[in-house]
From TrEMBL:
Its main location: cytoplasm. Its EC number is 2.4.2.8. This is Hypoxanthine phosphoribosyltransferase. Keywords: Cytoplasm, Glycosyltransferase, Magnesium, Metal-binding, Nucleotide-binding, Purine salvage, Transferase. It is found in: Cytoplasm. Pathway: Purine metabolism; IMP biosynthesis via salvage pathway; IMP from hypoxanthine: step 1/1; Purine metabolism; GMP biosynthesis via salvage pathway; GMP from guanine: step 1/1. It comes from Lapidilactobacillus gannanensis. Belongs to the purine/pyrimidine phosphoribosyltransferase family. It catalyses: GMP + diphosphate = guanine + 5-phospho-alpha-D-ribose 1-diphosphate; IMP + diphosphate = hypoxanthine + 5-phospho-alpha-D-ribose 1-diphosphate.
Amino acid sequence: MRENIEKTIVSTEEIQKTVARLGQELQTDYQGKVPIFICILKGAVLFMTDLIRAYDAPAEIEFMDVSSYGDALESSGEVRILKDLDIPVKGRDLVIVEDIIDTGRTLEALIKLLQTREAASIKICSFLNKPARRLINVHVDYTGVTVPDEFLVGYGLDYKNQYRNLPFVGVLKPEVYEQN
């Protein structure tokens, strides 16, 4: 897999420092509360696992699988809920945990859905932020690293469900995805 990586964007060490920082920020902001951290599958699972360990206070975790990409390189614009929450969120403080905010379409649809369920608050925590691709202006409350408009893989990010397990974030060589 590593031979298909053009360059590293976020090193393993930078990931660890970023996650620790975000965990502390969230812990400070949610002091005295018990938020529900909602991991958006599959990409955010590695980040969520590290983030919840860096958050040293009471919290709950939930999972949603939301898709607008499938195996495509570009968002289809159609957001589908593949796995919904297992608990009601009315009156609860929610932290949506994302691997990357790209166009903003998926996040906008998710926020609207959770608002209809009457959450007390909804905050966004994303490991990566790619503002150059933004089509919908969504507010990201907690951002790990702002990244360039390149095809990224690793630390949860994938290409055709591969590369998620790389311990860093890197740019996938164009010849890998251009030949498919």
